[in-house]
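Journal club prep — side note

Before the paper discussion, L.F. wants everyone to see what a predicted structure for a comparable chain looks like in token form. Sequence:
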Amino acid sequence: MKFLECRIPPVAVFLLMASLMYGLRSVTGEIGLPLWLRVILAGPLLLAGGLIGVASLAHFRKARTTIHPIHPGHTTTLVSGGIYRWSRNPMYLSLLLGLLAWSCLLDNAFTLLGCGLFVIYMNRFQIQPEERALESIFGDEFTAYKKRVQRWV
């Protein structure tokens, strides 16, 4: 399965999971929560995901390093400040929060499986290869960062 490492852009994985979740809801039905409650549940998740995503992209831009997830070996700077003090992967966390919000809007508990699959896929096929690349580029600096900061939160 090594051929899948850093091959599918995370946004494409996000869209695939969102589609899968929608299809799953179509087959299994809704819980029956009123729309206003679903929006109240989804809103803060979506807002948090958006803010985290914008902050993480801003830190990469400020550091003038690549955000391209398919080529982690092109990274020129280890970004460890700002939101990266709390999460090694805030961009992926923002996508996960978006999927959780989508799950709330879909009103179906089975759609949480899509969120779980997203985390499993990202850990294995995106984050692990990225971390290997960062370790080879930044060595002890990245190893120390990894010990200080959790992967997702």
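L.F.'s comment for the group: The two ends are 27 Å apart (CA to CA). Keep this in mind when we get to the figures.
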